[in-house]
Design goal:
Layout: E1 2-4, E2 9-11, H1 31-44, H2 46-59, H3 61-73, H4 75-95, H5 102-122, E3 126-130, E4 148-152, H6 153-159
Antiparallel strand pairs: 1-2, 3-4
């Protein structure tokens, strides 16, 4: 048992994080109190925290990529990405109307080949983007040629699942 001065209670030792610098080997405040304090600090200094995080990622890009690679190769990562891709395919399938003509389906496919050709010519990654996202928060679009555009991958990923056309 250990005493936490923040919540003024005695808790099991498992409720405290490890700290090798302390005589008992545990943090002085419990995990719950440290977590709530960290959340308050984050909300108070949100912009600063986000900018520091971005700087850290830029300075440690190799370790960030290595961690992502390890996650993708892990059993949990494989399951996560398989599920994500299956949901994406199903969403795309459900968003493709049955009334599309063969020419319109061909137009969709040609945008994907254009993105591939642009990648080879420019050396920059390109994506085919849904202008109105298939699974947006306020609106859901269709997988039709007039809702598709070729964008640089960085722009598409920064846009995420948002739609600002209103």
């Amino acid at each position: 048992m250990k005493y936490c001065p923040s919540c003024d209670s005695t808790k099991d030792r498992i409720s405290f994080s490890k700290s090798s610098g302390r005589s008992d080997g545990l943090q002085s405040h419990c995990k719950a109190c440290r977590s709530s304090r960290r959340k308050k600090d984050y909300l108070k200094n949100r912009d600063k925290e986000i900018s520091l995080s971005k700087v850290w990622v830029e300075n440690n890009l190799d370790s960030v990529k290595a961690k992502a690679r390890r996650h993708r190769k892990s059993d949990h990562g494989k399951a996560y990405y398989n599920n994500k891709n299956a949901c994406r395919r199903a969403s795309k399938q459900n968003a493709t109307p049955k009334w599309l003509s063969t020419q319109q389906i061909s137009d969709c496919k040609s945008l994907y080949s254009l993105a591939t050709k642009l990648e080879m010519v420019c050396g920059i990654k390109y994506h085919v983007d849904h202008i109105v996202p298939l699974n947006g928060t306020n609106v859901c679009g269709l997988h039709v040629p007039w809702n598709l555009q070729v964008l640089e991958a960085s722009l598409n990923t920064s846009k995420s699942n948002s739609y600002k056309g209103w």
